[in-house]
Amino acid sequence: MFRSEFVVSQSLMDLPQLSVISNPKWLILSIQPLHRANRLERGDTLKPRDTQLTFDSGTFLANAGLGRRIVELEPKETFFSQGDLADAVFYLQRGRAKLTVVAQNGKEATITLLSDGDFVGEESLASIPGMRLATASAVNSCVALKITRDEMTRVMHDEPAFADFFLKFMLTRSMRTQADLVDQLFNSSEKRLARILLLMAEFGKPGERDTFIPPISQETLAEMIGTTRSRVSFFMNRFRNLGYISYNGRIQVNKSLLNVVLLDQLPGHNSQKPLLPAIGSILKPVIPIVKTFLKPVIPLVEAVKRKLSDAAAD
């Protein structure tokens, strides 16, 4: 950028009018006859216009460029696989994805679900790049921006606005991970399932949201909440009968399901709590029979209790 300043001399004051045309690198002077009142006075300075553009994170993440390109994935295709070299970060522009881990014994677990506006693969920004710890795959058709490690590091150092944007995302991701851990440790599997369905329907985010969740199998839901597929099937049928969800080709989540998570409200008893009223009704006819068998033993028990009481008094 041209940064010098020009002081108007007496010779320039004699000209009818001096106007300035700004250019990012040059200042072009042109003479135009205008009213005398608009003439330059002694000591006036000519300064170049500040043409520095403000960095826009949205524009950066929406377009391909140096060190970044647009990738399109079909359902079940992978962004990266567990064990791959961590050399890029992905920004999900459209679609849904999931992050899964496979243990040495072959058991697979789904860690989290991703939606548009999420980053994935941020472990590549570590000071010493390593291997991918999980597999990211598309749940439905996805469009993402693949950003190389070097370009992501550069823009975070050079553009404070983008660094602030990325930091806010990482803090949100950290809070979500903590909430998932608390949910796994303290909530019932039925409540965990309700929370996952609400998160997939994006309840709680600003703006109107689509209450239809993307296609997902009951096996995947079981992996996410740490239970069996049969239990998930039981809970899903229970939610549907209570009007919390509905099936019409796709699963639609209703806002009333929030009562299960926020207020722990379910009509009747919780499916995982002991069914005390039912057990009492079953045992009621048996109690008189038990008392009949125990009737001869009761005097003996009373005599033993008296003897023990007398011995303790002595």
Describe how the helices and strands are arranged.
Blueprint: E1 6-7, H1 10-13, E2 18-22, E3 27-31, E4 45-46, H2 57-62, E5 68-73, E6 78-80, E7 88-94, E8 97-102, E9 108-114, E10 119-120, E11 135-138, E12 142-148, H3 149-158, H4 160-186, H5 189-200, H6 218-225, H7 229-241, E13 245-247, E14 251-253, H8 258-263, H9 276-283, H10 287-294, H11 297-313
Antiparallel strand pairs: 1-4, 2-3, 5-12, 6-11, 7-10, 7-12, 8-9, 8-11, 13-14
Helix pairs in contact: 3-4, 5-6, 6-7
Report on this model:
The chain has 314 residues and is an alpha+beta fold. The protein folds into four domains: 41 residues, no CATH class; 128 residues, Jelly Rolls, CATH 2.60.120.10; 76 residues, Winged helix-like DNA-binding domain superfamily/Winged helix DNA-binding domain (Arc Repressor Mutant, subunit A, Orthogonal Bundle); 33 residues. Helix content is 38%, strand content 20%. The protein has eleven helices and 14 strands. Strands 5-12-7-10 form a four-stranded antiparallel beta sheet. A four-stranded antiparallel beta sheet has the order 6-11-8-9. Strands 1-4 form a two-stranded antiparallel ribbon. The longest helix has 27 residues. It is elongated, with a radius of gyration of 35 Å. The N and C termini lie far apart (107 Å).
